[in-house]
Amino acid sequence: MVLETQFPSLTEWFKPAALAWIIRIGSFCLIALALGFLITGVRMGPKRSWAIVKGAIKNAFSDLAHLSFKRIFAVAMLSFKEAIRRKILIGFVVFIIVLLFAGMFLDPSSQDPARLYINFIFWVNNVLILLLALFISSFSIPNDFKYKTIYTLATKPVRSGEIVLGRILGFTLMCSAMLIVMGVLSYGFVIRSVAHTHKLTSDDLRYVATTQEGAQALEGKTSTVKEHKHSVYLSPEILKDPAGKTVMTEPTNGHTHQITIVGQGKDRQYKLSGVKNMFTARVPIYGNLRFRDTTNFDTNKGINVGDEWEYRSFIQGNSPAALIWLFKNIKQSSFPNGLPVEMTLGVFRTHKGNIERGVMGGLAIRNPDTGLMVETHLFESVEFNTKRLLVPLKIKPASRPQVISSKTKLSNGNVVHDIPENKLNQAYAQKAEFDLFKDLVTADGRVEIWVRCLDPMQYFGAAEPDLYIRAYDAPFALNFVKGFVCIWLEMFLIIVYGVTLSSLLSAPIAILGTIFIMITGVFHNYVLQLANGLTEGGGVLESMYRLLRQDNMITELPDNVLGDVISMSDQVINYIIGFVGYLAPDMNQFANSEYVASGFDIPWNLMTIDALTALAFFIPLYIFGYLCMKLREIAA
Amino acid sequence: MNKNASFRRKIIYVIILAALLYPMFLLSQPASPGKDGQAGSPGGKLAQLRTQYGMDESELGDVDIIATSFRLFGLTPIADTILWDAANKYKMKKDWISLAATLKQLARLMPRYESVWRFQGWNLAYNVSTEFDDYRQRYHWVIEGLKFLENGVKMNKKSIRLTWDVAWHTSQKIGKSDERVQFRRMYKADDDVHGSRPIELRDCWLVGKEWYHKAEGIVASGVPLGKISEVLFYSNAPMNQMNYSDNLEKDGRFDEKVEREWKKAQDEWTAFGNREIPTSQGQIIRLNDQEFFANQEKQLSRELEEIQPGLREEMIQQRRLKLTPEQAAAYDKNWVDRNAEEINLANEAEEILNITNMQLAEKMSADRIEHGLEVAQKLDNAKEQSVWTDRYRDIVNFKYWRHRAAFEQLPDVIQARKLIYEGKKAFQQGDLTVSKRDYDQAFALIKKSKDLPQFAGLDDEDAFQLDFKAVMETYMKILEQRNETLGDDFILHDLWEKAGGL
Smallest Cβ distance to A383: which of B104, B105, B134? Predict the structure, then answer.
């Protein structure tokens, strides 16, 4: 799975994020209070002004302290019923129609149908639920004013904060209920859409010779279903006594089937199971990647082989160059059968070489403390496919073991070794068999995995997430739910924005405002780049000037007053864009369906960061909404 | 206004509406097929016009509901832009599964734009496939590209370009890429692609030929060929037969089937040579006619000179008098000694002294002029036909392939090919003695065959020399490993020299 930006761990993220949040929210509150004090001070004098500001703060805290869940729940139930009255359930009809016609858009012959179906279903749910959330939340409070139902509420002992919170809770409950039902239907849709089995008869299989003298195996292909078939190989061992034995088909289109052999001789039958290994939720442990160049020095980047996309860096074959991943906290108790390593390498050939086979590579394990390095596997590369290798507990080296240090050249020219050359003990390598955890993993669980390309003038490439240790598999259904929780967080934020803005603005303006926030959130990175002047072609006015003049993006602005005015105006506009940009959450942060679609578990760490981010936006928005409601003249 | 007036007005509106609907019905009534032998209805005027100009959706190809519904809502351009952008992004990020899915969606939105199918079919078969290291994965993407194009043909049944593209991709990508040995092997074994097609016919060149014939069938049905060169278009199918025959030998078959297939190739090439092809100047030529017109030209030229012998020399002498002294001096000078100015002067002189056949005929005496003009006219026509035919022959290397197809049928040549095949295998197995012996025997047979009078000039053909060079590559390695060199007594010394080997 491609992870272009690495997310930090919760501990790394929390402290600076919380600090930034407190500073920004605190400054905002202080500025608001200072402005309030100044304005009222001018009108009524400083003493009275101070009393008013103090009163407002006191009231706010009093409102907060006296929030009644019962009243909030009552408002929430009212919102829930209102939403149903407004025929929100029409969203279901749209959803069912989309599911019915989804088959027209989706390609069952895809090499990875699960990924297509999951991505599609998450996209549909996301769009539908966000649109629903947008409309019901933005219309609620303005409609209360329009149809005077606010009088009924305001004349009851309900606090402003409770109205805002009640609305948010009510719509969230309503949309959550819909999301749950849509989620269940979606899960069923995905599972049912890809479910199938194949047929295999004796006529589909033929005997082939094997490397064992006189032994024959059976090979063939299953029937074609959903535009694919699977290769089947029954080894001589299986054929000795096949009845009751089970084997797996070769994987095709991202899945396999289990074959159960029933009966003997002419009565032998092959029963194939449904889809296996299609829906997974791998929990990977990622390491830190560095590169060793051809002169034996470690670097942060490898060679660029001319790819426009610089995600992967490459190393040269048949040279000291290597891809090195450092893993931490690897404990034997977690891996009682060895280390299951999975990797997806890029391959670049500078000459045809041997077309019939892939480029050869070697995988080695190195102890970062002793420098002992043992090659465990020689493998044939398969580009864009995941290669699975199990590093056993007892390792018989595939080549001569070595004891080596890792060295880095500093910017001042000095060379730093991770193990001083004079402390390298070659005696560590003098063994015929090595114990993975005793010899190659440090006491604190650190271990290095080295991958080298063995064919001359050929290259291997990788990015950090391309090699990982597969810790275990989480339940797919749980991962699916996690994906929906991420959608739920987005939905929640849209409801919060919708309700907050509608407490101040009329319904159409609130909708436009929320849509604006949504779009800004979706293009968050671009908006921030624009605000920081990092986009090609300059700011808004500069681009507009070039468009009108049909100039290209690198043409200089005129060196006159007009050019200066454009540049200065763009700086002001960029500042405003930046301010607005920070008001919107980065919606891409919550878009984690690719994890589910690619068969990876959404990390709890990431989920927690997402939830805390949503909370960080909710708190100030709620306060803002409360103040708006408080200040609004209900019977104007 | 009472209730009755209101009701009356509504009734009038309904009647007017119905009256307006009738002409609309007449205009847009759809055509319906006949039942039980009875003729169907041709439909309204619009339906008739659609049929007349072949613009009926179902006439163009399969009807796609998604494309039609997107068109209805006017969303096609927006969706296309988004999908095209996404496809470029997926390609850049090497997300091939998403790319393939996006391309399929894109094509479904614009099913009648053959350029979308062509561009993206090429993209999958040529660009995406080469991104993979494993030839099996490469093959998968080549087939994906082919399937994509075939779907394009389903949606555009009258598209010559798309049908031709399927033929081209099937033939060239599978039959001529670096991985051709592996691709051809996998293609033969691919039941998904071939279905019930017999193994013998599962050759990319034969399947490609079928598709070329389909494209020819579309042209025969009246669809104009457009800007496609006619001579190239019609050469493809017989060339595929040549390549098929050639590859049979490369695959190690040397039985009577090879001779039969080369004979078939020769027949098809001859039929191609007999096809009438319009040139860019508008005249019709047949590639087989070049020798006829060349002979006719010689004969008529002689005949023209004999009508009034000596007239041309006389005219030249008269024109010489019109040359300036500088032009005459430059003309008489040896061409290698002329300077830049003299070259120009000599060219001017040549132009003045050049007497066309018609000018010659016009100067003939009164009793000969009529006959002279007639012969000159015929001579000019024959010359023009000969020149244009020769020019068009060069485009498809016509003469070489005609020779080659005949040459390859000779039993000695088939035996030579077999010896070369076995010699190469022996070399790969390290048996240098057998491999040299096989090659030497093969060269002797080739020498004997190429020296036959009907193949005079064959060894002057670049393609023949290139083919020979490829054979010599292994032979030179054999000599090198045997610590020998190619002596002057090498039996194909002259051909090797012509091929630039010496």
Answer: B134
Are B174 and B204 in contact, with CB atoms under 8 Å apart? yes
| DSSP 8-state assignment for residue A382 | -
Residues of B in contact with A120 (CB under 8 A): none
Q: How confident is the model at residue B201 (pLDDT cuts 50, 70, 90)?
A: very high
Closest chain B C-alpha to A229 CA, distance in angstroms: 9
Residue B468 lies in a domain: yes
What is the pLDDT at residue A60?
Answer: 82
Q: Is residue B65 part of a domain?
A: no
Distances (CA, A) of A200 to A169, A219, B277: 55, 11, 54
Is A107 in the B-facing interface, judged by CB distances under 8 Å? yes
The answer to whether A523 faces chain B, any CB pair under 8 Å, is no
B344 and B388: one domain?
Answer: yes
Q: Are residues B45 and B77 in the same domain?
A: no
Q: Are B193 and B317 in the same domain?
A: no
**A116: contact with B, CB 8 A cutoff:** yes
Provide the residue range defining the domain that includes B21: 3-55
d(CA B229, CA B161): 12
In this complex, do A359 and B133 lie within 8 Å of one another by their Cβ atoms?
yes
Per DSSP, the residues of A286-332 read E-EEEEE-TTSEEES--B--S-SSTT-EEEESSSS-EEEEEE----G
Q: Cβ of B242: how many Cβ atoms within 10 Å? A: 22
Is the distance from CB of B382 to CB of B297 less than 8 angstroms?
yes
Six token digits for residue A319: 């040279």
* The predicted structure's pLDDT at residue B1: 53
Q: Count up the domains in chain B and report the number.
A: 4
Do A292 and A264 fall into the same domain?
Answer: no
Residue A435 structural domain = 285-473
Question: What's the confidence (pLDDT) of residue B191?
Answer: 87
DSSP string, B33-96: --STT---B--SHHHHHHHHTT--HHHHS---HHHHHHHHTT-HHHHHHHHHHHHHHHHHTT-H
Among A326-340, B53-67, B266-280, which stretch is predicted with the lowest mean pLDDT?
A: B53-67
Which of chain A's residues have a Cβ under 8 Å away from the Cβ of B135?
355-356
Query: What confidence category does residue B239 fall into, taking pLDDT thresholds of 50, 70 and 90?
Result: very high
Cross-strand pairs, A221: A231
A322 with A190, same domain: the answer is no
Residues B221 and B75 in one domain: yes
Tokens of B192: 């998904």
End residue of a domain, out of B213, B228, B243: B228
Strand order in the sheet with A458-462: A313-316, A458-462, A346-349
Chain A neighbors of B104, CB-CB under 8 A: 107
How far is A449 from A469, CA to CA, in rounded Å?
10
| CB-based contacts of B114, cutoff 8 Å, min separation 6 | B152, B156, B159, B161, B162
Among A104, A309, A383, the residue with its CB nearest the CB of B133 is A383
Asked if A107's CB is within 8 angstroms of B101's CB, the reply is yes
Q: What is the mean pLDDT of residues A569-580?
A: 91
pLDDT of A342 over the 80 cut? yes
Structural domain total, chain A: 3
Chain B residues in contact with A311 (beta carbon < 8 A): 93
Compute φ and ψ for A379, nearest 5 degrees: -135, 160
Q: Which residues of A touch B94 (CB under 8 A)?
A: 309, 384
